[in-house]
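Entry:
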Amino acid sequence: MAKIIDRYSAEAGGSSTMYYYRYPDNSSEATRIYTGETIYLAADYGTSMEGSMYRLIDPEGWIHWYHVRNIQPVYKTVTDPCTAPDAVAIQNGVLTISGGSGGDLNAWTGFGVSHRQRAVNSALWGAWSEDDAVAERSIPVGAESGTVRQYRVRTLGSAGSSYFSSYTVCETLISGNTAAGTPVILLPVSGSGTCSGVCAVKIQCPPEPDGDSMTLQRSLDGSAWVNVKTLDGAGGTVYDMLSPETGEHTLRYRLVDMNGESGGEDGISFERAELNWNRMIEPNGIIANREISFVRDIHQLTECVNLLCAFYGRPALVLPGTPGAVSDWHRQLLAMQEAVDGCRAAAGRTAYGFERPEGWPSAFRINQLKQAIENT
């Protein structure tokens, strides 16, 4: 309770002739006082006593202690300052206030909530904001994208700002930056292999939670991250072209938001096999005769095309007709061309631009298919 002793009441008593004095000595101006008269002593009359005299505040002056009877305290109520909140906590975007109250002549009216903020990558805080007055003990809070906020709370009372409590600062900081999501590698198929000198990667990038721009980054075989493409907040599908060396590889992608914070990673493994053609067919060279079989070439071409199909998640090619049968050749070549273009389309690439087959196999069309396989 904010009650304090304001003064003491008492009665004059003793001999028939009593006086109180202007100063604490008998030689100063004296005024007569009678038995039973009410007098008031100072709140510190005991410690401020001089000689044998108590200090009076009504009437004002000094009186011998032995003329004072029935001393009683007189109390007054003073305005209490508000008590500060015991704790301020933030969890799941909700600020919770514990403790904090008003006092005598200063009823609780609510809480003043303010904040300061800095950029995500900065240590320099801005000024505290003006208080927002709230009447609840749990309120939603947040931070702008790219910033970190700290909150503080003080108790408000009816006696005015001079009697508000001190602030209780929340130690938990809120980041307005939500890390970018995890990209998903759609193609090629992890664990598969290719005989091509290029690798086209298809990556699905989710929207950025804060709507900010973001950058897709790649790491090949554990190397440093490199930027692939900058996307707006909507995300989308990205195609990335690589020229890996022969051998086994690991490939990882991640998204980094505009504040430099990265999200989750997705990765695959694959192998680039060395490609050695059974034979090279020079322009106007012999495709087949009694000594040279074209069947082996067709089987190798089909095998390479199906390696690409598996790599890019396409169905395997079932070669029509009989390998080596001249009458079936143009259908077989067309089927392989379409399978290669299907792989390219799956990886976001344009059709190769084949010369369509007609009649007897030509070295040009065979070599064009080989080149397409080597670059798909």
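The mean pLDDT is 92.
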